[in-house]
Amino acid sequence: MATTTNTATTPPPQQVDSATAEELTAKAAHKRYEGLVMVRTKAIKGKGAWYWTHLEPITASEHLKRGTCPNFNSLPKPISSISPNTALLPSPSSSGGTTVLHTSSNRKRPVVSSSGLSGSGGVASSTYPLTAVGSTYQVSPLAIVDPSRFSDDMAMLPQQPHLMLSGGKEDLCALAMLEDSVKKLKSPKTSPGQALSKTQIDCAFDYLADWVYESCGSVSFTSLEHPKFRAFLNQVGLPVVSKRDFVGGRLDVKYEEARAESEARIRDAMFFQIASDGWKVKSNGGFGDINLINLTVNLPNGTGLYRRAVFVSGSVPSKYAEEIFWETITGICGSLVQQCVGIVADRFTAKALRNLENQNHWMINLSCQLQGLTSLIKDFSKELPLFRSVSENCFKLASFINNKTPIRNSFHKYQLQEYGNAGLLRVPSREYEKMDFGPVYTMLEDIMSSARALQLVLLDESYKIVSMEDPTSREVAEMIGDVGFWNDLDAVQSLVKLIKEMAQEIEIERPLVGQCLPLWDELRAKVKDWCSKFHIDEGAVEKVVERRFKKSYHPAWAAAYILDPLYLLRDNSGKYLPPFKYLTPEQEKDVDKLITRLVSREEAHIALMELMKWRTEGLDPVYARAVQMKERDPVTGKMRIVNPQSSRLVWETYLTEFKSLGKVAVRLIFLHATSCGFKCNWSLLRWVCAHGHSKEGMDKVQKLIFIAAHSKLDRREVLSDEDKDADLFALANEAFDKDIVGG
């Protein structure tokens, strides 16, 4: 039996090793080539001018256009600008074969053919500029050029005149623009993107208009025609807008829409309260003494609606304010003036508001509690000796540091060392101090925050030299080294900060009238703790607080505190009763007097009988707990009432047996205790100061303010854009300070 054996032919080991080595070498050469191409691409894009001495300058015009070569006038004309027929150079011959370059109009890279490569078995493609040397592959000199060889090769080429621009390097930008224009003409235009429909364009401009109007002066109308903004519109496919369109018909339409919505909400409510702020004379940073008086409508459901703006200059008489209030009321409800429950304002409590309340028995006119707390700081600065002594000492210290050049330079040196920044201590003028304690408080903050730097100044040689001749320097040195001075400064700063924090919380929370008594009780407790901490006599401080309390107090505070189910207290029997035990005898009488004033004479005795029943029976525990139910605010972490409208709704739906007292309760407990609302930007006030005599201009300002205020009140925004920006920079400063401390 014959046996057939198939034997595979195995190549010699040397041949296998040789083929493997060739493949590895070819792959390495290919990888090296790709790396060089990447480097050359970066050089072409201008990523680094130093590449040009090592890489073939095939895009030297781009290099010239960018102006990265300082010696472009002395170099030969770039090879890319030479005719392709003369630019082809034969590569050096080798023992393994020769490389021939072919040019083609539809290829960007030179085509390489090698006599030493097999068309089927070669690893390298014919498009790679490789040369064969024996059994290895090397990168062609086209990919990387030796500088000395490049100079020799350039010498072989026909030289063209040096590129000389009559304008020098300043012409490079113009030359680049010329080349770009040529490229645009040679290259086909890219097809435009999908055009926006008219509906999309109108919707986009509606949003843009809302943003511009609601910024209320922060965004100027002229900026709509800024070249960069127009470029942005063009980039997103929107047509160019005109500022005249935004101050013309579009503004009128937006105003009418906001006005109609506001009127509809007011008509839907049974009664309302007027809030007015801006009557206090303020300095507007050089924009004159123009103040913006805001008149807002507060509805029972907690909604705030903007009504009108009034611009006044300087101080105004009380009678004028009274006329503005009454004109606003009649403009809303006509002859049905009883729909206006009352007014809350930041001024004219003693005259205008009291006159209107006496003339209209159903009205409850309140003073703004934010203004009351702010005025308390001014009271302390005038009446407490501690405030006066600390202010005087700080004036002397700050003026000395700022005015003595050697001391100031030393102070700045230690500021930079300790805090990373330097500046003068902010010293207010003596005249301004009498009007407002705010600038004085700023000076106190500067001194307290610079305590470490001030102490280091005393150890500096420059201070010792000045102390030899200036007696004030020795007095200031004793002050800085005195622990008592810093304790007193800390005490004043702590008390002002305490009141400012309460005022800020009031501005944000906007408490109702029933919260006024608990608010002042909280203030008294905090002031008492402050006196204990800094060993201050309580008598003088309490006297100042009580005087301000009496100026701010209104009998409605006590009545609302008693009638609002939010403040009911659970007794031992489980009943929820009104907190009469926290009222003084005078305040209890105020409750009776106010209730009888707010009802007709025929209902007065009925209302008092219902008040006695309310005092003894209170509210059903289930409803009381429902009204007082709280939840944690996810943003602030504070506990808040779940449904603030429950207090009023309980009287309207459940406590219907209290006919007369219920009418008083629902009109009383919704009243706001603050008048703060819309804040106007200074940029708009500056415009009013310049164009306040133009009827057409003021009409547009009124519409702009109404639109902005209507939107902000609807979103319940308290802070202005300027306040938000200030908070943003404050956070940035805090982060910077942490970095300094951490470093």
UniProtKB/TrEMBL annotation:
Residues 83-104 have a biased composition (Polar residues). Residues 20-58 form the DUF7963 domain. InterPro entries: DUF7963, RNaseH-like_sf. SUPFAM superfamilies: Ribonuclease H-like. Residues 83-122 are annotated as: Disordered. This is F16P17.2 PROTEIN. It comes from Salix purpurea (Purple osier willow).
